[in-house]
Amino acid sequence: MPQLNPGPWFSILMFSWMVFVILIIPKTLNHTFPNNPTPQMTHTPKTNTWLWPW
Questions:
Q1: What GO molecular function annotations does the UniProt record carry, in alphabetical order (predicted)?
Q2: CB within 8 A of 3, min separation 6: which ones?
Q3: What are phi and psi of 52, to 5 degrees?
Q4: How far apart are CA 30 and CA 21, in angstroms?
Q5: Angle CA(13)–CA(16)–CA(21) in degrees, nearest 5?
Q6: Mean pLDDT in residue range 32-44
Q7: Per-residue pLDDT averaged across 33-44, rounded?
Q8: Terminal Cα distance for the chain, rounded
Q9: I want to staple 10 with a disulfide (CB 3.0 to 4.6 A). Which of 6, 30, 32, 53 is the partner?
């Protein structure tokens, strides 16, 4: 069974992880959003109680 031989698969695994760590993670961490999110409301609105007519 070729899956039990770790020779070629281990090097492919290490190479793919090195590409992921060296290239992809820094590119995603350097991404900046064009608009910073701001809260819509800074205070809670005052609500009145509803008096039912019945």
A1: proton transmembrane transporter activity
A2: 9
A3: -75, 140
A4: 14
A5: 120
A6: 74
A7: 74
A8: 80
A9: 6
